[in-house]
Each structure stands twice: as structure tokens, then as C-alpha cells.
């Protein structure tokens, strides 16, 4: 069997007169009803592909919510050989009506969850639907993302003669910053908070320029500020939790463990995915996030009511 085929998609959802509905797509080539999905472009992150494919197939502009179960099944590749197709899915709330349809989709239909389950042609697609319904019943379908970022790769300390906070990204780091920009867009990030160190600010700069967003620099997120008063970094995190706005926070290796420990305290043991979420946060804290890594934390609620319900790690 050939190498797995990576693909990504979404389960778009909305509420109409208080009822949960999801959007299915019809492909005339196969005469089937399924979720919007498609193959990744070379070098494209999974979440970015999910948003792009949803827009291309349904004309729906979506921001990703919590991840849903992955699907794996066997298809025939371009040469007619069997290959495993791996599809990563996300819940995605639709807030605007769809435009004209393009590509291989000839119809998008919004259905309540019972009708959708009956209409889906593949049993594997009902796995994502059941997960979405469980999250809705648990009150954890509507989430907001907080993206913790360790700055991208910078010029080495030994190669830099200036002050350490002025040390810039290297070429690899600059490329990673551009890729991170597309990742932030997939989750609809609206607020950017960063250490004032150049390597952190430059990691968020491409997205800030693209979206016209200000970079809010906080001394407490720098290595130097953290060494003087470690509690300041956690206070900056709490302010983001109070706002409940989709945000990205960029800091340094020595600072991030305290922030991750704070988020661990927001995982409720009764949550269905509590063990998985806890393991992901502990791994990021104890093994250290990689340079240029983005940890997407999905939360419900704000301030004292905020709790973590899902986590994704996006490595360079």
C-alpha cells in the first residue's frame, strides 16, 4: 500500500430556531453525501486545509472550533493502487450564508442531526456527528481558541553580539512565522499578545500585518521580566481568559511551563476528554514546546468559569 493521503475537513454547524443543524455536501461524481473535506496542498497545515476546503466546496467562511475524531479509510490513489486516506476534522460554526458553489460539489444541505445521520452515506462520517452532538449536550461545542506559541527559531546566542532581546529570527524562523500566520487565521485569532523580544514579536508579525492587528507587548512574558517576577506572565494569561477573545500569546521556553500549569488547572476531571487534554498539556509543559510550536487550547467560558475542553499541538 502506498503512503497515506493526508486530508482535512469540517463539520459546519449552526442553530436555527434553537435547533442544531449541520451542513452536508453532495458530490455528483460519487452521488454521495458527506462532510466537506479535501487533500492537503504540499506543506499546508491540516487546519488551514480544512478551512480552505470548506470555503472551496461550500462557500462557507468558517473559523475552526474543537477537533473531532479523525477518519481513516482505504481509497485508490491516482495510479489505482490502494492507499489509506487520513482525514482530520474540526467542528466549525457557520456565521454567514454560503455563496455560489464551485468545484465538485453541486449541493450543500443543512439538516438537523437526526436527518443528517440518515442522509450520510458512510458510517465513518457518523463518528464525527456523534462527537459533535455529545459536545453540544455537554455545553462544550461553542469554544474559543487560545494559541500558546513558543517563538520560532532565532539566530543563535553564540552568533549574536547584541543584546539578547534584540536577537532576530533566522531564515527558518521567518518561514515558520509565515506558516503560523495561516494557522492563526484558521482559528480566527483576533488578539495578539507577545514578549517584547524581537524573536517573539517577529513570530506574530506576519499575521499582525495581514490582519491589521496590533502587537500587544508585555514585559512579563519576556525571559528577563519572568526572571524578576514570574507571576506577571500568569497575570497576562488570566487577562486573556477574562476577555474570552480568540488570541495568540507568544513567549519563551522558560516562561511557558507556568502558563501551561495554569491551563492544567482549568481542565475539569468530569470532562469526557479530560485525560487526553491533561496528557497533552503535561507533555507540552514537561517536555518543553519546540521553537515555533503552536499549542491550540480550546476553552469554554471566561474568567473564573473558563475551562479547557480540547488541545491541539502543531509542531514545526
From TrEMBL:
One of its GO terms (molecular function) is hydrolase activity. Residues 3-133 form the Nudix hydrolase domain. InterPro entries: His_Pase_superF_clade-1 (IPR013078), His_PPase_superfam (IPR029033), NUDIX_hydrolase-like_dom_sf (IPR015797), NUDIX_hydrolase_dom (IPR000086), Nudix_hydrolase_domain (IPR051325). Pfam families: His_Phos_1, NUDIX. Keywords: Hydrolase. It comes from the Bacteria. This is NUDIX hydrolase. It comes from Pedococcus ginsenosidimutans. The lineage of its organism: Bacteria, Bacillati, Actinomycetota, Actinomycetes, Micrococcales.
Amino acid at each position: 500500500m502506498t503512503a497515506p493521503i493526508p486530508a482535512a475537513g469540517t463539520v459546519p454547524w449552526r442553530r436555527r430556531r434553537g435547533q442544531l443543524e449541520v451542513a452536508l455536501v453532495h458530490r455528483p461524481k460519487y452521488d454521495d453525501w458527506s462532510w466537506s473535506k479535501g487533500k492537503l496542498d504540499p506543506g499546508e497545515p491540516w487546519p488551514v486545509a480544512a478551512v480552505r476546503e470548506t470555503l472551496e466546496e461550500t462557500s462557507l467562511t468558517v473559523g475552526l472550533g474543537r477537533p473531532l475524531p479523525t477518519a481513516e479509510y482505504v481509497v485508490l490513489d491516482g495510479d489505482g493502487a490502494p492507499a489509506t486516506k487520513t482525514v482530520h476534522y474540526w467542528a466549525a460554526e457557520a456565521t454567514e450564508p454560503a455563496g455560489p458553489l464551485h468545484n465538485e460539489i453541486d449541493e450543500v444541505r443543512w439538516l438537523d442531526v437526526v436527518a443528517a445521520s440518515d442522509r450520510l452515506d458512510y458510517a465513518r462520517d457518523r463518528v464525527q456527528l456523534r462527537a459533535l452532538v455529545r459536545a453540544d449536550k455537554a455545553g462544550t461545542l461553542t469554544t474559543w481558541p487560545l494559541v500558546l506559541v513558543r517563538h520560532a527559531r532565532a539566530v543563535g546566542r553564540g552568533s549574536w553580539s547584541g543584546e539578547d532581546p534584540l536577537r532576530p529570527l533566522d531564515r527558518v524562523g521567518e518561514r515558520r512565522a509565515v506558516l503560523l500566520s495561516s494557522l492563526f487565521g484558521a482559528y480566527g485569532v483576533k488578539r495578539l499578545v507577545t514578549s517584547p523580544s524581537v524573536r517573539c514579536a517577529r513570530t506574530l508579525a506576519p499575521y499582525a500585518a495581514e490582519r491589521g492587528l496590533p502587537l500587544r507587548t508585555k514585559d512579563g512574558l519576556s525571559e528577563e521580566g519572568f526572571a524578576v517576577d514570574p507571576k506577571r506572565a500568569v497575570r497576562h494569561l488570566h487577562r486573556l481568559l477574562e476577555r474570552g477573545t480568540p488570541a495568540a500569546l507568544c513567549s519563551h521556553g522558560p516562561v511557558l511551563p507556568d502558563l501551561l500549569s495554569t491551563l492544567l488547572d482549568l481542565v475539569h476531571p468530569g470532562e469526557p476528554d479530560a485525560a487526553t487534554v491533561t496528557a497533552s498539556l503535561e507533555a507540552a509543559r514537561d517536555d518543553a514546546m519546540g521553537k515555533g510550536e503552536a499549542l491550540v487550547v480550546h476553552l469554554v467560558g471566561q474568567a473564573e468559569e473558563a475551562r479547557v475542553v480540547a488541545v491541539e499541538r502543531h509542531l514545526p
